[in-house]
Specification:
Rossmann fold, 6-stranded mixed beta sheet, 24% helix, alpha/beta, elongated
């Protein structure tokens, strides 16, 4: 873990994780969805940043965040949805989310907006970030390393990070660039963690022609399928994104989670009672005696 200046440590803590209730694997095409009740054991923080102060406006992240929030609510999550979040407000949402997550059995963090890679470190960018040079990045953005450190301290059995922020970095066009486009690979994650990027390391993600990005559209659709385990949800998302973008974009997953957890449990259909035994006609009368 890299050392960052102390003044950015608390403001940039972010606990992002998910723990999904485990059930036996059920085929979505065979089992209807079980009604899922919203409770404190499943919580989510969903952030979408699009209206950036530097003029680099993104059309889809707010729509993407709203779509994922709806999908998670349908899966029984209590969702804190935050859009166009400043650095200070992001810290407030994160602090409350971390507090709630300590007693939750399931937590989910989703972020859509600008992200950047600088000297091998990934950062999430709040809407009020005005960055004049590389030296300001650790103080005015959220380092992903601090996110992963916060997750590890929380100790949630399953932690999932979903980042739809692999877009081109507009802030560093005048900088002496020390990184590649998109986000860089996460080399190690805390035990029980899944980190998912909308695009492969070093690649950028597409916004798409509609109101939602191809990645978020595919993720929301996969989340609604009952009976899918978390790894199946992410595999289906990646398959669909690759298909829709004709191979230009391929989501990337780094996982240290090996248990089985289902997002929306399926349920066995109510068994029908067995049919009644066949009713046999009475035997025919004996033949009359012969004269």
């Amino acid at each position: 873990m890299r050392d960052y200046p102390q003044q950015c440590s608390f403001c940039h803590w972010l606990f992002i994780s998910v723990l999904l209730t485990g059930t036996p694997l059920l085929r979505s095409e065979e089992k209807p969805a079980q009604e899922v009740k919203v409770g404190k054991d499943r919580i989510a923080l969903v952030i979408g940043n699009g209206d950036y102060a530097n003029g680099s406006v993104l059309a889809n992240p707010v729509n993407d965040a709203k779509l994922i929030a709806q999908s998670l609510e349908a899966a029984g999550f209590s969702v804190d949805l935050a859009t166009d979040v400043t650095n200070q407000d992001m810290a407030k949402h994160v602090a409350q989310f971390r507090t709630n997550a300590e007693s939750a059995k399931a937590a989910w963090f989703y972020y859509a907006g600008h992200g950047m890679e600088l000297k091998g470190v990934n950062y999430l960018v709040p809407v009020d970030a005005v960055l004049q040079g590389e030296y300001e990045v650790p103080f005015k953005t959220l380092p992903l390393d601090l996110v992963l450190e916060a997750m590890a301290e929380a100790g949630t059995p399953l932690k999932v990070v979903i980042l739809d922020c692999c877009r081109n970095n507009p802030f560093g066009r005048s900088w002496r660039r020390s990184g590649a486009a998109g986000l860089s690979q996460v080399s190690s994650t805390p035990e029980g963690t899944i980190v998912t990027f909308a695009a492969a390391p070093g690649k950028t993600a597409e916004d798409g022609e509609g109101k939602n990005s191809p990645f978020t559209t595919a993720l929301a659709a996969a989340l609604k399928q009952p009976g899918l385990e978390i790894d199946q949800v992410l595999k289906e998302t990646g398959r669909k994104v690759k298909e829709v973008t004709e191979g230009r974009q391929q989501p990337w997953v780094n996982s240290s989670f090996f248990d089985k957890f289902v997002v929306i449990p399926g349920v066995e259909p109510i068994p029908r009672p067995p049919p009644p035994p066949p009713r046999h006609p009475p035997p025919p009368p004996p033949p009359p005696p012969t004269p």
